[in-house]
């Protein structure tokens, strides 16, 4: 398996001079002195550690993900269609139509209008900058929205008393925005907490002061296996975050570092957070404590660790009776994670789902509690959602109750915001304006639908970025998922199962146990024709 991008990646802003690169190294077959092109080696020569990360200049208005081909993804499966019969509805031409498909789900007892969760969006600027669209869009869609780690710790206006947070305007803003448009029934808002958050008392704060119902313990993510990271563009801010207990690099208290920063040798500091080392007994007690102080739901967010850690996570989650677990596969996105780690470390999503399904079946066989699960890691469309959920249903309903997305809703928010800005300036792409109009009221297809309920708030209190997020999550993903289920003649989400998908590669069949398409129903095929 060649890696032609080893020496040139769009995520790091690097490229090569020649197209016919060495398949082993990714270098140009002939590397010459008189070359102004910055490949990975060349840029690293000047900028060192900066090239480990997505382009620093884009921080706050970008997301990044792996561009490695893992040789197994959701395109290795196809959804099977049916001609006869219908499940979940009367098999009538007048009733068995896709608008009548029920795609509602429940994750850990929380109802969802669409089987989605959005997040987690923590202290990275891209989450803060796009929060209005993300929060209101998720609330309108009726899904779970997750506020990520370190929000209180990074909030400039946070107030701490004896080392514990007693007020965080940014956290308050995020929670209140969602709740203002939440119907109180479908979806909810969760707050994710890591080691620093626990030390700051964020759990107690959001449960007692902000009436949050869901606390999510952060054990990892698919994009990296180290702590959360952001960029800080001022020396004063870097010093403040170090005083709050964060790891900041290079050390802002070092006088030589201060001089280098003032001289422009580098333009941002890195703020890193710590990783936890969970223990079974301690975690069980932690979950009990969270419930005692008011958490209605306790969940885990974990990354794509090696198989023994996946098994251990599921065992501990079962013992603690958490409400659900989010497993995040390698290949998904980030606000800021090391590019080599995104590409080369951890378990890709399809492999990871196969592991957790194996674990769920073992727990079930042993008569133990099986938490609900949400799958994350590079999901962007309804066919991927369908395949992941169907794969998890061995006959008693799906283990995977929802799909968690972060990058895709962020893209919807950013695209909406940018095109609205272009419309205000009269600078929309000509082809786009000719097709869809030059006013957000026209080019957001769901605008009129939302106006019937929210009136003049649409485009004002409900920003166009929220309209865009809702349009993507419900009008595209929700309706698209309904169509796929109708094609399978399954009119309730929990009816799709492993028999509704087929593998298109030997590797897919070997990893997941889903038969290849040419192997399906061979005996029945002959019986039908010979009976």
Short description:
It comes from Candidatus Methanophagaceae archaeon ANME-1 ERB6. The chain has 531 residues and is an alpha/beta fold.
Annotation keywords:
alpha/beta; eight-stranded parallel β-barrel; TIM Barrel; globular; 21 helices; 39% helix; three-stranded antiparallel sheet; Aldolase_TIM; 531 residues
Tell me about the largest β-sheet. Answer: 8 strands, parallel, barrel
- Poorly predicted regions are none
CATH architecture of the domain at 74-228 and 273-411: Alpha-Beta Barrel
Spatial sequence of strands, sheet with the most strands: 5-6-9-10-14-15-17-18
The N- and C-terminal alpha carbons lie at a distance of: 48 Å
Strand content: 5-15%
* Average pLDDT rating: 96
Q: What is the CATH class name of the domain at 74-228 and 273-411?
A: Alpha Beta
Helix content: 25-40%
Quickly count the helices: 21
Radius of gyration: 24 Å
The name CATH uses for the topology of the domain at 74-228 and 273-411 is TIM Barrel
How many beta-strand elements? 19
**Helix and strand composition category:** alpha/beta
Shape: globular
CATH superfamily of the domain at 74-228 and 273-411: Aldolase class I
